[in-house]
Structure formats: structure tokens, C-alpha cells
Amino acid sequence: MIRFNLKKIIVAAIVSMAGTIGVFADGNVGQFGSDPKISDLALIYAGNTHRPSWTKDDLTPYVTHRYADGSEDWFFDGFLFLEFSHGDVQFQNGSGLNPATQSDWTWLLDQFFAPDMKLDALDKLISDKKQTLGEPPLRHKVVISCCAPSKNKNGEWSRSIWGTAYGKSLRFISKNDRISAVKWYIDEILARWEAAGFKNIDLEGVYWIEEGLFSNGDIMAEINDYIHSKGLRSYWIPYYSNNQKYWSQWKDTYNFDMCYIQPNYAFLDNNGAEKPFSLLTETVDAAKNYGMGLELEFETQAKSNALHEVNPTLHQHINDYMDVFDEKGVFDKAGIAYYSGTQGFIHMDKSTDPVDHATIDRMARFVAARQKARRDNAAINDVTTDQVTIATTGDGCITLAADTCCHDISGRLLYTGAGSFACESGLYIVSDRRGNSMKLFVK
User: Fold this and answer.
1) 244 and 331 housed in the same domain
2) What is the DSSP letter of 28?
3) In the predicted model, what is the mean pLDDT of residues 194-222?
4) Which of 49, 108, 119, 121 has the least C-beta neighbours within 10 A?
């Protein structure tokens, strides 16, 4: 009888996955940061009046991509829902608006969880697309932004009541009250997510909305510890220039799990001039030195509009990002977040300029290759114990040892016992009679 060694199975799985997901960034200078659950994270600005409603139609160019030849494939596997302000209130410091109160924070959560929009629309759209595209390479993940306690316009913490949580009236003049307010918000995210019962998306983490920590750096480590206590990961996307005092400490001091750095090469400066190409390469080098991921950036509105028909030079910056990311190994090793302004991929999808479509086609191919490589490398292709092969996969087939059975991901029993069986491309579960199981992917 073949004896299965569960410890060896687990070790083999970890070794197989390590090449793609990388190691957590702390203590690994000289290595890009990569998130273990999200390959490509799209930023979705949602809530303010000038944003899309984020219906299924709005989200389609982010969930799938239609190439110039008419073919369609899955696109981003991760989605960050965030917002900076609404009306005359701000959800962060630095906007020069009034500090948001508890009712404003509640309003934002209402926006994120509104029926048939945003999160709900994303879940339903993925379900629709599975009918034609099958299962995605990676399960879709969501990160939700956390409101930051904000100061008055005079730069001082308010003594007014922000709201009530845990049986106490909270005021931002108190550090402990600021921590309590954020913990309340995180609890609300979790409660609403549980109540929503989404089928196709998982809540992976919480994002800190401030890109510099000049106001709330003193509470950040405790907030991230609280996020971790809830089984979630903490995310941050700081800007590169004049911000090193914060991003250089992203892990050791502030306790974030994943940090993507913004080059900001995509945007014109205050005088309308382009940023130097060296800014992009310097930021990539800093990301590698400090164990961070990267943000790929463009927008299709305002003065930095990068639609090809509007500004061919800024449009080329999108390809500059891809060229540098390709040459420096970002696409191979790093986690990547994608900033496209308010609705960049919607505008690119609707553009009548073939250059716009060619550029996003190129981006989508990089994304597809990254996700399929991660999926394939995470699969356990060969698992052995005491020189005896338990199961192997090859192109279009799976080979099972004795005393095993194979199910598809829906739980349907397909094959039992020793033998080689033809399979369609996809994920399968192999188990034995002693309760051990493992996942395998057939190409």
C-alpha cells in the first residue's frame, strides 16, 4: 500500500508556489514585493459624484478585456475600492476639506455595498462572465479602503464629536479615539461583507487611503495589527518623490503587509511639463531595494489625459511603464497595482483610436501571462513520498496512484484508482482514503 506523507505534500506545495508569489518583503532587500493572493490590482474610485456608478457595464473593461481580434479574456484579479472625498468632506488629510464624521464614513460604506453597483455588480459580473469564459485563472479578490481620521482646515485635530463607537463618544483630538473610530470602520466592513454573501469575490484586505503618514503615522502600526487580528491583510500605495521617510518604513515601522510605490511618471507637473524618464527607473529601483510592488499609472481626463488622440506623448508613457517593468523584472516578480484615474479603462475601451486599443491589448497580455504563470506555478505537478509518485499532471491529462480519487472544483467525482485520465484544462482536487488532499492544475 502506498503511504502518503502529508508533511512532504505541504512542503512541495510551498516550494512550488514560492517562485511566483515571492516572500513577504520584510528582511528581503533587493527583492520586489509580491502579494500572495493578488497578482494585478485595479484601483476603482467609487462614491464621489464625478465617479461612474460602477454598474456591471462600467466594470466590464476591468474584469475582462476584448482584444482587437474580438477575443475576450479575463483581466484584473484584484479590485481596490477607494475614495478620497465627497462634497465638502475628506476621508483623508491633505484635501483642504472638512473632516468626515461617522455619518460620512457610513455613507461611503453604503456606496461600496449598494445593490447592483460596485461590489455587488462586480460579484454578479464575474458570475455572468464565467458562463462564457469559464473559471478565471485566479479567484477574484477585493481590498476596501479605510477612512483616515482627518484634521480641521486649520491643521489641528477637532475636539468635536466624530461619532459614537463601543459605547463612547469619540473625538479625534484623542489618539485612542482615532484608533477606536478606525477599528469601528473595519468592523463595519466585515459585518457588511458577511451579510452580502458574495459568491465570486473574497475580501482580502484593507487599504490605508493616505499616501503620506504625516498625520496618522502614530496609529498606523496598531491599526494594521487590528486588521491582521481579523484575518485580513493591510495595503498601502504611497508616492515616491519626497516621501521616503514614510515609504522606507512601510513594513518595519508601520506594519503593512503589501506596499505598492507610485512613480507618478504619468502626470504632468504643476507647470505642465513632463516628468523625466529617470523618475520611472528610480522608483522601480527603490521598489526592489525596499521590497515593494509597483503602480502602473495613466489617466484619461484632466491635463494628464493619456488617450492617444489627445496626447500621443503622454500615451507613450504608458508603454514606457510596460517597457521598464518588462526589462527590470517587475512583470516577472512584483505585485502591480493599476491606476487609471476615474475611468481610464472605460475610456480606452470606447476609444476609436486603434493605438489606444493596441496599448491596452499589450497590457492585458502581460496581465494574462502573469496570472496564468502564477496559477500554473502554484499547482502541484509532482508530489512524491518515499520515491513513489502519488499524482502527476501533464498536458491534457492527470495520472493517479492507487487508493486515490479525483474531483473537479465543483466537487463532482471524476476518476478513482490508478491510471492516466484525459482532462480539460483546469483545477482538480486529488484525495486519498485517509483524509489527505491536494490541488493539481492540468494545462
Assistant:
1) yes
2) -
3) 98
4) 49
My answer on whether 432 and 403 are in the same domain is: yes
pLDDT at 243: 98
Question: Which distant-in-sequence residues (6+ apart) come within 8 Å of 233 by Cβ?
Answer: 35, 37, 204, 205, 206, 227, 257, 258
We report the CATH number of the domain holding residue 329 as 3.20.20.80
DSSP state of 310: T
Query: Distance (Å, rounded) from C-alpha 287 to C-alpha 95?
Result: 27
Helices assigned H by DSSP within 155-275: 175-196, 217-229, 244-247
Report the C-alpha gap between 347 and 325 in whole angstroms: 23
| CA 48/CA 102 separation, integer angstroms | 17
- Confidence grade of residue 399 (pLDDT, cut at 50, 70, 90): confident
Asked if 126 and 76 touch (Cβ cutoff 8 Å), the reply is no
Return the residue matching grid coordinates 506594519.
Answer: 255
Query: What's the DSSP call for residue 410?
Result: T
Tell me: do 220 and 313 sit in the same domain.
yes
Instruction: Give the full edge-to-edge strand order of the sheet including 89-90.
Output: 85-86, 89-90, 98-99
Q: Residue 236 pairs with which residues in a beta bridge?
A: 259
**Which residue shows C-alpha cell 506555478?**
377
Residue 239 β-bridge partners: 262
Higher pLDDT, 435 or 155: 155
Cα dihedral sign for 363, 364, 367, 372? negative
- For 91-198, where are the alpha helices, taking DSSP H only? 102-112, 118-133, 175-196
257, 392: one domain = no
Q: How far apart, in whole angstroms, are the C-alpha atoms of residue 342 and residue 54?
A: 11
Verify that 372 and 390 share a domain, yes or no.
Answer: no
Residue 430 belongs to what domain range? Answer: 6-13+380-442
What letter does residue 339 receive in the DSSP assignment?
A: E
CA-based nearest residue to 297, from 332, 277, 321: 321
